[in-house]
Amino acid sequence: MNLVKISLKNITSKPYPAILTLIMLTMGVALASLLVLVGGALDEGFKKNIRGVDMVVGAKGSPLQLILSAVYQIDNPTGNIPLAEAEQLAKNRLVESTIQLSYGDSYKGRRIIGTSHDYIQLYDAEILDGQLYQAPFEAVVGSIVATENSLKVGDNFYSAHGADEGAETHEDHPFTVKGILKPSGSVLDKLILTEPESIWEVHAHEGDSAEKEITAMLVKFKNKMGMISLPRMVNDKTSMQAALPSIEVNRLFELFAIGISTLRIVALSVLFLGAVSIFVSMVNSLKDRVFELALIRSMGATRAQVFLMIMIEALLLSLVGIVLGLLVSHTGILALNDYAGDQFGITISFLNVSPSEWIIVGITLLLSLLAALLPALRTVKIDVSKVLSSDVK
Asked: Where are the domains of the chain?
């Protein structure tokens, strides 16, 4: 007796309850899986972009805004700081290395950063085509910028003031593309990099370093003493602000956690409703299938086989719901991938499977089988002779 085949026929004979159950399970699995994938990618992406950056120095203002603008390039800067003051901090005995960043201009909405080659090395980025910039107004372009603007080595472009695409362009200072970066899954993918002198010259900053300004400086400490003393020293004794990426990113994730927790509850609720739907449909179907089940028993099926047949029905429904839910969530990742890359410089693969998704699969299977357990146990108590001798069908 092929129990799987019989279970499939039972499901397809009354498709509407099965479809409702599948919709519930698919929605629950898809939402839970999507939360896991997006949350994991954001966590990995945010941590990847602060790797090697212990402290960020910029103009006084919001520490979180400083981190978002200087590290992730997704907010407006808090202002500029004197280059001379930043260089003085870089000489501190607790500082191992620094990377200066000057920005404020853009090309078609993509930020132009004046910085050293150390910024590229920070993210282990490599040149795909061409070479690194060696002089002012030579530029290296991130992979996303190059793709969306069809830029190639040798092309010229003009910067615009601010981040708006319609802003006034500096047509007296053309930039030349010298290199294209390989995709790195970092913030570099959405940036245009050049010498700091390019930014200063566009804005007519002339003279010695005491008159020049930068937007931010990324700092790496020599040891833990830097983490303890330097941020307070910068905030209390200079015109600059110091922010610690690790602390600010944790605060940011605390804000995200409220919304994610709410969505997680919604996903589990939908999965629970799917299990309830299985229970209700099984109970209702048993009322109409008592004679059929008794007939199957009279043909040689054991109580255990009938019990398994009901459990297999629940298992098949849950497996189909799981597969559909995972397909929906991973297809949703494709739609979110461009946005994630554009906003956060991270990529989420369609084929990426999180270990947490196996937990979702396990929970879904467990809920479905538990929902079918009581109806399945009721089949064991069917009085075959009584049912067959009556008119119940």
From this structure: 3-47+257-389, 55-243
Range 231-240, long-range pairs (CB < 8 A, 24+ positions): 231/55, 234/55, 234/57, 234/89, 238/85, 238/89, 239/60, 239/81, 239/82, 239/85, 240/57, 240/58, 240/59, 240/60, 240/81, 240/85, 240/86, 240/89
Torsion of CA 181, 182, 185, 187, to 10 degrees: 0
240-243 vs 55-59, strand pairing mode: antiparallel
Measured distance CA(275)–CA(24) in Å, rounded? 8
pTM: 0.74
pLDDT in tens, 225-247: 999 999 999 999 999 999 999 89
Question: How far is the C-alpha of 340 from the C-alpha of 332, rounded, in Å?
Answer: 12
